[in-house]
Specification:
single chain, mainly beta, hypothetical protein yedk fold, 3 helices, 36% strand, protease, single-stranded DNA binding, Abasic site processing protein, lyase
């Protein structure tokens, strides 16, 4: 699964990467330990252009009776997207990208769990594939939420965990976002493990395990626990 990640680039870098002209995010700040049920930066396409705003992480289907279900839908398995009622109709209509520059996963070793941060070797921003939906409560208030799509681990991740977020290639970003693209079989082909040789993983502090911690030193390399 993918349950924590980082997005530490500036707003200017985000807008330049996704060709964004305007954003609805008023108070942007780097996230060193983004966690489920938080509002996170996300990119959608409105049919004409890309838009950058915030979605709450943890998908609440439009037909859900209450929004608490979101905490159980932080990830969507690519292999079963078309089988799940919460996701299957979103593939053709409500795709999004969650920008990131790293994600965390916990590696079992010596009877302990060692937190690892996984990034691109280049250190660049990357795009995690997601789906979003809009839920409305009884009073008419809208809640926009998202889920991060996962796939099987590549050879780098296999030593850490059996799942990883779907990271879209630079070329696939526009194809995934394009709202006019409803070719589901072609879209599903984009949901594959990213090239392991372009990624790296390194140990970080156990402090990342606490969602209340969100300072920049969390991304610093740490000594692996010896057990």
């Amino acid at each position: 699964m993918c349950g924590r990640y980082t997005i530490t680039v500036s707003m200017e870098e985000l807008m330049l990467w996704y060709l964004i002209e305007d954003t609805t995010i008023v108070h942007y700040a780097p996230k060193y330990n983004a966690a489920p049920m938080q509002s996170i930066p996300a990119v959608i396409h409105d049919g004409k252009q890309n838009r950058l705003g915030e979605l709450r992480w943890g998908l609440v289907p439009s037909w859900a009776k209450e929004d608490k279900i979101g905490s159980k839908m932080i990830n969507a398995r690519s292999e079963s997207l078309q089988d799940k009622p919460a996701f299957r109709n979103l593939i053709s209509t409500r795709r999004c990208i969650i920008p990131a520059d790293g994600f965390y996963e916990w590696k079992q070793q010596n009877g302990r769990k060692q937190p690892m941060r996984i990034t691109l070797k280049s250190g660049e921003l990357f795009s995690m594939a997601g789906l979003y939906d809009i839920w409305m409560d009884a009073s008419g208030s809208k809640l926009s939420t998202c889920t991060i799509i996962t796939t099987g681990a590549n050879s780098l991740m296999a030593d850490i965990h059996d799942r990883m977020p779907v990271i879209l290639s630079r070329e696939a970003e526009s194809e995934w976002l394009d709202r006019n693209n409803r070719q589901v079989p072609d879209l599903m082909k984009l949901l594959r493990p990213y090239a392991a040789e372009q990624m790296r993983a390194y140990p970080v502090s156990a402090a990342v395990g606490n969602v209340r911690n969100h300072y920049k030193e969390l991304v610093d390399e740490a000594e692996e626990s010896a057990g």
